[in-house]
Automatic annotation (TrEMBL), chain A:
The keyword Ribosomal protein does not apply. Belongs to the ABC transporter superfamily. Residues 34-250 form the ABC transporter domain. Keywords: ATP-binding, Nucleotide-binding, Transport. One of its GO terms (molecular function) is ATP binding. It comes from Thiohalocapsa marina. The keyword ATP-binding applies. This is ABC transporter ATP-binding protein. PROSITE patterns: ABC_TRANSPORTER_2. PANTHER family: TEICHOIC ACIDS EXPORT ATP-BINDING PROTEIN TAGH (PTHR46743). GO terms for cellular component: membrane.
From TrEMBL, chain B:
GO terms for cellular component: plasma membrane. The keyword Endoplasmic reticulum does not apply. Coiled coil: none annotated. It is found in: Cell inner membrane; Cell membrane. Residues 53-269 form the ABC transmembrane type-2 domain. GO terms for biological process: lipopolysaccharide transport; polysaccharide transport. Keywords: Cell membrane, Membrane, Polysaccharide transport, Sugar transport, Transmembrane, Transmembrane helix, Transport. The lineage of its organism: Bacteria, Pseudomonadati, Pseudomonadota, Gammaproteobacteria, Chromatiales. The keyword Ribonucleoprotein does not apply. This is Transport permease protein. The chain crosses the membrane at residues 55-77, 83-103, 135-154, 160-182, 194-210, 245-267. It comes from Thiohalocapsa marina.
Amino acid sequence: MARIDLDGVSVTFPIYDSRRRSLKNRLIAAGTGGRIEYRTASETDIEALADVSFALADGARVGLVGHNGAGKSTLLRVLAGIYAPCSGTIHVQGHIAPLFDISLGIDPEASGYENILIRGLFLGLSRREVKAKTEEIAEFTELGSFLDLPVRTYSTGMQLRLAFAVATAIDPEILLIDEGIAAGDAAFLEKANARLRAFASKASIIVLASHANQLIREICDSAILLEQGRVLMRGPVEEVLAAYEARRSK
Amino acid sequence: MREHVGTGAPGGIAAGSQWQRALGDVVAGAARFSLWSLLGSKEIRQRYRRSRLGPLWVTLSMGVTVGALGFVYGALFGQPLEAYLPFLAAGFVVWGLISGLVLDGTKAFTDSDGMILQLAAPLSVHVYRVVWSNLLIFAHNIVVFLIVAAWFGVLPGWHVLYAVAGVAIVLLNGVWLGLFLGTVCARFRDVPQIVASVVQILFFITPILWRPEMLPDRALFLGLNPFYHFVELVRAPLLGGVPEATTLAVVALVTLGGWLVTLMAFARYRWRIAYWV
């Protein structure tokens, strides 16, 4: 049973310039009553999500659409439990697989096999479970003996294959996908999409953030339109995409 | 990762549950032994991957340092080598462990930003990684002391068990240090440099190169230096003695106080770390 409940979730990012990143400056400012540090701007905060509420139950396949910076990636990170909301509550039940910016968390100095193991352990698999899946992962990547070499020797496409294969090797109940994965050569993309579809048919909740409307049409049955961190609209895929297109062409 | 409940900022949710979550993070992180031990060992292996000697470099460079320092400072202080060199080797190796925990602790979270933003694992995993890699380096370095001690015929015997317990306590402190410094340094990016300067100074004012007896009228200065007590905790048994009661008291106090303060800070700011890195 997988379930996601968000109630009034807001996320605000503090934006620090190098000066506000400094403890020395902070102490000097405190010690001199703020006379030395000239405050150019008061605290800058960016509201990435504002009062987002929705509930997803088993079987939900939701597409997130919106401009760059609309809050899609932040929302996915909140769902994954990486960002705790600044206010509001979130309740998530079920095993989560995040498929975000794929290059993040890949260690370029470690070999392909090591990266498979590390990623698997991070996702909460045991050493034995990862070992059992390694062969299948290796096969999917088609990287062969490259898997013994450090990942920094890989081309971007090869890195993508590896990361994608590892990220999709577990059987999650909740699948969170960010658009970044839709890169790579055509042949791989086809294969990746096939795997994604197979993967999607097993997961009980999918949240997919994408600019590739085709992918959303294919996988999702409803969509959420985000703008400036707010939920503007939620409904059937075609209606939401139409509204998104209309706003974009304005 | 079966289930997660989102925090509101402090105030949004009862403070008690923030405590529970901080403690839960520390405990759940510890349970991921296979993950952080792998990350820690990988770090060491990578550092020496392209050299023929591999991690043996750690041992070798420590040996050369101790030899050179012993030769110069032994003469400078007019100390007989057979007493001075084991003292120096033991102190220097233990100092290496303590300062490594402090310095690497400052970067525990900022070095792992990619992992933190990608996967929601307990944050303490990154601190345990630091502690583990420092333990591995220590295991390589202690060989130098054992060789020196064997050479001069002053191997510690069964007192070594006290030293093992001492190292365990140092590591226990390394965990809170990493959680605390890692969190502060994620927010304030100039703290690692400040900490590095302080550690440098501490090395000279802590009796590692020199013996406490050489400074008879500065007893208070020594007594107030917690680093002295942590070095003594392991060094004294390595040299065949036992740590003094004051040392044990200071260590107990620092361990408890450090954990208390850290858990309070971690409970309050843990949820912010992902925003900061």
